[in-house]
Design brief:
It contains four helices and seven strands; from the N terminus they run αββαβββββαα. It has 183 residues and is α+β, with helices and mostly antiparallel strands. 20% of the residues are buried.
Length: 183
């Protein structure tokens, strides 16, 4: 019973934006931090988590945009299998003393077994999360949405951790010099 409540809460963490698309969006205040510091930390986050940064896209100043993907599973923990993958876009924008992030553009790609008994993506079939219930039953769609919500919450926690991280710059220690001319 507890699992059902947790899954429901994670699914409810996703919201609809003005275009009726699922998003996970938050604005975080960071008083005392400059926009450049937050921007550099957001760039470090996208590099550390290996998000693909589109080369052809023009960004707003102090913003980072990256694309990623995660797997969706089905079944009990001992015999669970991949049922698909969800691709997403992460957008982080910084200002003086605050930043915002948005996970959006969720696309579900179902997996099928190939002739070698491996789970592979179905070519050319990408389903927006908003239209899952038209392609799948309520139970399957809710399970996929719950995993997308859980992933969004986990990613948000990692972003907050990265933005709060104190830089570990080593201070340059003065080089000890020996005066050989005075003895």
């Amino acid at each position: 019973m507890w699992f059902a409540q947790t899954a429901s809460a994670q699914k409810d963490s996703l919201q609809f934006d003005e275009n009726n698309n699922y998003v996970y969006y938050h604005v975080v205040d960071k008083p005392g931090f400059t926009a450049d510091t937050l921007y550099n930390r957001s760039r470090a986050f996208t590099k550390a988590f290996k998000l693909l940064i589109p080369a052809d896209k023009k960004f707003a100043p102090n913003s980072v945009d990256g694309k990623g993907k995660f797997l969706v599973y089905n079944g009990p923990s001992m015999i669970r299998k991949e049922t698909g993958a969800i691709s997403y876009t992460l957008f982080i924008e910084t200002k003086e003393g605050k930043y915002r992030y948005k996970l959006s553009d969720f696309l579900y790609t179902p997996y099928v077994r190939d002739r070698f008994n491996n789970m592979v993506p179905v070519a050319g079939l990408d389903i927006p999360l908003e239209k899952l219930q038209t392609k799948y039953g309520k139970k399957e769609a809710d399970a996929i949405l719950a995993q997308a919500g859980a992933f969004s919450i986990s990613t948000a926690n990692k972003i907050k951790e990265y933005m709060d991280k104190v830089s570990n710059f080593k201070k340059a220690e003065p080089v000890k010099k020996v005066a050989t001319d005075k003895w």
